[in-house]
Amino acid sequence: MYHERGHGEPSLRATGLVRSFGAGETLTTALNSVSIDMYPGQLALLMGPSGSGKSTLLAVLSGLLRPDAGNVYALGRDLWGMSERQREQFRLDYCGFIFQGYNLFPALTARQHLEMILRWGKNLPAREAHERATDMLGLLGLAKKADLRPAQMSGGEKQRVAIGRALIKEPAFCFADEPTAALDWKHGEQVIELLRMAAHDEGATILVVAHDSRIIPHADRVFHLEDGCLLEPGIDEAERALRVIQGSKSLASGF
Fold first, then answer.
1. Lower Cβ count inside 10 Å, N or C end of the chain?
2. For the segment 182-194, what is each residue's pLDDT rounded down to a tens digit?
3. How many whole angstroms separate alpha carbon 245 and alpha carbon 228?
4. Pick the CATH number of 2-102+172-253 from 3.30.70.890, 3.40.50.300, 2.10.60.10, 3.30.300.20
């Protein structure tokens, strides 16, 4: 699928998205007429300052937060024209999510979190679900942690379980909010490579929200959101801009 990315019809198209919070003097516009096209086989990176609306855009595009105005079409279907039940079913069938808060069930082991998705979401037999969950945990460096519950894991280990849970269903879309934030770069790079494989090998559409500039060379596209407006600089331009910002921070810390 890799060679086809960026061609044909977009798998995800958003037009004129507006989303505000608060009212009166406290009104904040998080999205100001944002439009974006994304394609199968692409890993897109969404960057921008804290509070710029990145997580809001991810939530609107994935059917979790209703926009004030605008439309989102996923696989040609009007996401916000669906009923709530239809939208829930669409997310179950086609979407994987990686949240900053992990959202793991305290009573389930790492393997059970993955098996649950395959057994109840994909209707796989118990043995096949067990084998696939074990394989995914191995790819994430968690083979020896398979029988641990969240309370027995570090933050980085819990994050990797959450990532495995999102990817094991082989979703058409994967929405990842700061997926490497709790990880050292060795494991972070491992995770980004898994996301790239899901895009390039499986044809998934991947959107990653992150501050980590080390992800830029791994992305097919880079978007920048600031003051509610979306830009798509080239990858080289994005890297240069981040070097300038990081250099300014380093210089300031010397005074």
1. C
2. 888 888 898 899 9
3. 20
4. 3.40.50.300
